[in-house]
Amino acid sequence: MASSIAARVAALDWTTAASDLDTYGCATTGPLLSRPECEALVQGYASDELFRSRIVMARHGFGRGEYKYFAYPLPQAVAALRSALYPPLAELANRWNGATDGKAAYPPDHADYLKRCHRAGQTRPTPLLLRYGTGDFNCLHQDIYGENVFPLQVAILLSEPGTDFTGGEFVLTEQRPRMQSRAEVVPLQQGEGVIFPVRYRPVRGARGLYRVNMRHGVSRLRSGSRHTLGVIFHDAV
Prior knowledge:
Blueprint: H1 2-10, H2 14-24, E1 27-31, H3 35-43, E2 51-56, E3 63-64, E4 66-70, H4 76-99, H5 110-119, E5 128-132, E6 137-141, E7 152-157, E8 165-167, E9 170-175, E10 182-186, E11 192-197, E12 200-205, E13 208-218, E14 221-224, E15 226-231
Antiparallel strand pairs: 1-11, 2-4, 3-6, 4-5, 5-15, 6-13, 7-11, 7-15, 8-14, 9-10, 9-13, 12-13
Helix pairs in contact: 1-4
């Protein structure tokens, strides 16, 4: 499975993805996981031994629904996605940092980046499964878990829109200084991912590049049940 997923990630049009991220603040991947792979991850949600914690969103004012953080060792598909997606995203992250005088430089291998996180006390895995039912939603937020924050992440839809659920669109907002916020709604198919910034992205203005604040969430589910895999590359404190 790991080699198959790595081949799918390598076959993505990374030039177009980088251009879309520069222009729109997000990029879709096309199919990354097959239907059986999606269904296996969804079925794993009931296995508490796979996870380190469960969050009921309404208890914290995060929205409605719930999610679980995976424990180490990660399931094979999740670990394969994390390690395969990281190198091309690290290349883009380094370009973004260079354009905005960012201080962090990201190594090309994810294992080396995790060592940096772990030296800083960020040792808990952050990939997660999210589950929404009818009426559930996810408030706009950022996934920041410590001092080391990798600037990009990926959400992969595991359910089939129109069959398993309706509504529940992925939403991204961008707040530029002294301007109204811009929203981007990203339709996804089962097994497809969206790449987006965790916190900031560079935007070119009249005086050069500057960083804009980004948040993401999920609109209200009209019916059914929706599961999503979140692939976050930094670990948590």
